[in-house]
Design brief:
The protein is mainly beta and 57 residues long. It has a 3-stranded antiparallel β-sheet, with no helix packed on it. Strand 1 and strand 2 form a beta hairpin. The chain is elongated and about 45 Å long. The chain starts with 18 loop residues before the first strand and ends with a helix. 4% of the residues are buried. This is 50S ribosomal protein L25. Pfam families: tRNA-synt_1c_C2 (PF20974). InterPro entries: Rbsml_bL25/Gln-tRNA_synth_N, Ribosomal_bL25/Gln-tRNA_synth, tRNA-synt_1c_C2.
Length: 57
């Protein structure tokens, strides 16, 4: 869980059901149940694979 982060200003206008890619993290959707205008909540729907972990092996 990330309690505070930085994002593009356009995410203030996010609507539930639309997916957003957060760099190097995965795809997220706005949680319409727990979000407020002041504190949006995004849930990860798909994580990104960590291919660098395999390079070190």
């Amino acid at each position: 869980m990330i309690k505070q982060g930085f994002a593009e200003p356009s995410l203030k206008d996010a609507v539930a059901g639309k997916a957003f890619q957060f760099e190097r993290e995965g795809y997220f959707c706005l949680d319409s149940r727990h979000s407020t205008a002041e504190k949006p909540v995004f849930n990860r729907t798909v994580g990104l694979r960590d291919t660098w972990a395999k390079v070190g092996e």
